[in-house]
Design brief:
The protein has 311 residues and is mostly helical. The chain is 69% helix and 1% strand. Strands 1-2 form a two-stranded antiparallel sheet. It has helices at 3-8, 12-22, 24-42, 70-76, 80-98, 101-111, 116-127, 134-145, 150-157, 171-187, 189-196, 200-208, 213-237, 245-251, 257-260, 263-273, 277-305; strands at 53-54, 65-66. Helix 8 (134-145) packs across helix 14 (245-251) and helix 13 runs antiparallel to helix 17. It has 2 domains: 3-54, no CATH class; 79-305, MetI-like fold, CATH 1.10.3720. It starts with a helix and ends in a 6-residue tail after the last helix. It is built from 17 helices and 2 strands.
Amino acid sequence: MPVEITARKKPFRQRLRRDMRENWVVYLLLLPVIIWYIIFCYLPMFGIVMAFENFKFAKGLFGSAWVGFKNFQKFFSSYYFWRLLRNTLTLSIKDLIIAFPAPIIFALMLNELRSRKFKKSIQTISYLPYFISMVVVCGMVKTFTESTGVFSQISQALGGPKELISNPGSFHGIMITSGIWQGLGYGSVVYISALTAVDHELYDSAKLDGANRWQQTLHVTIPGIMPTIIIMLIMRVGHLMSVNYQKIILLYSPATYETADTISTFVYRKGLLDGDYAYAAAVDMFNSVINTILLVTVNWISRRKSETSLF
């Protein structure tokens, strides 16, 4: 019997121990990542119990009174529920439609450049905004969109709002536009890597068939990176309800709550500012459950239609 078949039939624990002995350096490098996930992702999940309690610090997590689904009922019947759900979905769907294709288009455009030096220069310049602190980026956005800012003055000259940052109708545009500017270059990295794996013989065959550059892109390049696009789309949909709340908190104000307030920012205000931890935990749990349902659903559809999936 071949050695490979024999090794596959060994128990999982035995194969794992052998692999750890042979590749102990890799597992050692992986250890900090595992510890980080345990401490910051899995241990905090015990806090879910808080969503079903009237949590009091003095009584602790397991000593507080059990209230069942009362916190969830309070959220579903509140004035804020539909507004938060509408704002979260609207902003997320707009961002998905507009911002998600941007790095793909940018990567395809870079792929058409023939000058390697010019291509590297464009890539480097496009990466830089991603490494700017979110606080600095939001400060820049506020400066450009306040009443004396460049963009607000342009808007005013065209008959638009005098101060974009305090206008509820402009908030989504500011969020999406600034997000594309900051994440365009960095987001294109995975697609640029995928483009390098496309078989160049396919391009030669397409040329022999008389295909021009645009036809090669449509029939060779895009199908070649489609599995990567699908995986990234599944991951993006899995975070559909979790918008970039840190950025929203830094940009929004009571004047823009009408369109800017989302479920994540509401959780921040209720939990950290108002101290209503049980209510905030219930709202956040609802948000996480919806994200999980979306992720599993889109992954199932993708697996059925394209045979590409996360799991």
